[in-house]
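Deviations from the work plan: none for this task. Representative record:
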Amino acid sequence: MTIAVLGAGLVGRRTAELLARDHGDVMLASRGQAGESIPGVELLRGIDHPRDLRPLRAAVLAGPSFLQVELAEELLDLGVPVVSTADHPDAVRELWNLAGKALASGTPLIVGAACSPGLSSLLVAQLARRFDRIDAITTARFGTGGPACAREHHRSMAAVAWEVEDGQSRTTRGGSGRGLVWFPEPVGAQDCYQAGLAEPFLLHQAHPDVPRIRALQAATRRDRATARLPMLRKPHAEGLLGAVWAEVRGKLREDRGGGIEHAVMAATAPQATAAAAVAAAATVELLGDASFAPGAHTLGAVVEPARLLRRVGDQVRLWTHSGEIVVRPGSSGPVRAARKWRGGSEFSPIRPIRAGDPFEQADLPKVNRLATD
Amino acid sequence: MFTMLRRAVFGTVIAALTAAVLRIFGGDGAPPQRGGWREIDPADLD
């Protein structure tokens, strides 16, 4: 049977291309033009409803976010497993609310299988496996994919942002909460802000016990200043530089020492390529041996994130961060942490934090262990 | 002339004192001096 990709934008076309390499029978359907031909992919245009297509094995939704809700409902009614790339937070919530319908129809629905959410959720899931207890999750993203993604970036900077604080979901102002995030080169250090992103909601579903979850988005001063205005110029055809970053803080598993640590991973790729790789990998996983149970799923809660990360590894570069403070030759005494990293008014050298110590961000040593998995 | 010189010296002293205070108390400590981003081979993930 056929796998259908609904939506012929950058993400849809690349997803179809990637799926066609593994599965010969792939169709790319769109309401309007489907664009140039892709080897091994059947192009269909003028398709308004999934029921107009022949029986499907699975469907990847790669069109506008809100259109995906309507299509997902129809597909679930038809009993077709669905992979959604929607990134608008309201659409993602609506898709998540289709869990009951998915359960009733005995069909899995994967929500947030794109770059962010999607790849960032997988990084969090991979990092989370090291921890017994997670105190905070932060994700950040840099760049945009196609024009629709650029418009979403613009919208989200002026939208209401969501975060989880003390285990409760709450709103905050888009464009607030600035943080300097070091992405791998060539992106480097970027100012990132909270924005109207879907990531906190999905991560909260995947990790309901985590007290603090934030999602940030890189933006320039001009992005912030013009966020509440219409887009001043047409978005680029594609942003070729993209990255996602994820940090998990908490108490390590006992077999990893049981200490308090923060672990960081990142991935770099053009965002449209990364989103397509994740959507294709999720579809393959959906159809594979370890198929998802009926109901709604997020990639932040997959049991074996490494397997999905290996699948996207052909298209995406994965990174882990390690850093340590070393004593310069000839210097004496303990290495001093920055004032801003120290808690209280008294100077104290960096000390390892043991399990059971009260967890405070200010106490965290700026020493990252090698994150090899 | 003397007034201008006095103001210049006064300004220089204030600037030097401010710089000294920032230099002594405003340091950012030791940043990570080794390590950084390391690319992972996806096959190595467990």
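Residues 5 and 11 of chain B are 10 Å apart (CA to CA).
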